[in-house]
Amino acid sequence: MDSNRDLVAAADRNLIGSFRKLAEHSQRGAVRERDDVFTFRTGLPIALFNGCIVHRPSSVEDARDALDWLGPELPYELWIREELLDGFAGLVGELGLDTQDWLTPQMVLAPSATIPDPGSGVATRVVVDEASYEEFTGVFAAAGGTEEVARRVFPRSFVADPDVRCITALLDGRPVGTSVAIRTGDVAGVYAVGTLREARRRGVGTAATWSAVAAGRALGSETIVLQSSAMGFRVYEAMGFQTVVRYAIYARR
Are the C-beta atoms of 42 and 50 separated by less than 8 Å? Predict the structure, then answer.
């Protein structure tokens, strides 16, 4: 998988496959794939977990139809690939969606990247039983959600999925971070990287990311991808991740 086109296709395949996986494990989840527009819903009242991805040339009518399928009340995110943006500016304005200046990069890890040891006092472990599941969802809830929402985002069936690895990061023995690896064939994605505020700048997020990389490789995926926030971008670049395509994300809260 050498050409940029192949890497873009791999990153998009995992992005779409990961949202499909979330919907698959949600009680009210569903997906819709038509006319090069992928749409999914989990039913959770959080924009991130319902959305529409315009990843190939498509019409405004196709995108509007996909968003209508999501329903009038559900919060959602609309992802549009950077080179397709001009054709959808009118739709974004018509719908009154929240916009952000940051274009979210899809990044692919250089194959030569080696996984370093975590920093002093930092450790990670994969969720394998009820105790580690409670630990993982507890960190997610402590980051600003609730235990109920954490369990709905990451139900036990999702955590037990053979294509998924959920990871808790610890600082001096205390659970303070998370990450998730999701495999789609020969590609694995790194998701849900987060660190509790009081434990930041201690290497926890980096260790959680590397742990998800290791989990993806252990699942047999040669290509590792992620989507970066503005805050994490320089960290991921230093780790060896390279941008292959960018998306604008608009939200109905």
Answer: yes
Instruction: Give the DSSP per-residue string, 63-116.
Output: HHHHHHHH-SS--EEEEEEGGGGGGGHHHHHHHT-B--SPPEEEEEE-TT--PP
How far apart (Å, rounded) are the C-alpha atoms in residues 93 and 87?
12
**pLDDT tens digits for 139-182?**
999 988 888 999 999 999 999 999 999 999 999 999 999 999 99
- Are 152 and 145 in contact by the 8 Å Cβ rule? The answer is no
Question: What is the spatial distance between Cα 185 and Cα 221, in angstroms, rounded to a whole number?
Answer: 7
Distance CA 24, CA 9 (A): 22
3-state secondary structure 147-161: HHHHHHHCCHHHHCC
Kindly report, residue by residue over 47-90, the tens digit of the pLDDT. Answer: 999 999 999 999 999 999 999 999 999 999 999 999 999 999 99
Residue with tokens 């670049």: 237
Q: Which residue has the tokens 């450790």?
A: 123
**Single pTM value for the model:** 0.95
Structural domains in the chain, CATH included, are 4-105 (no CATH), 122-221 (3.40.630.30)
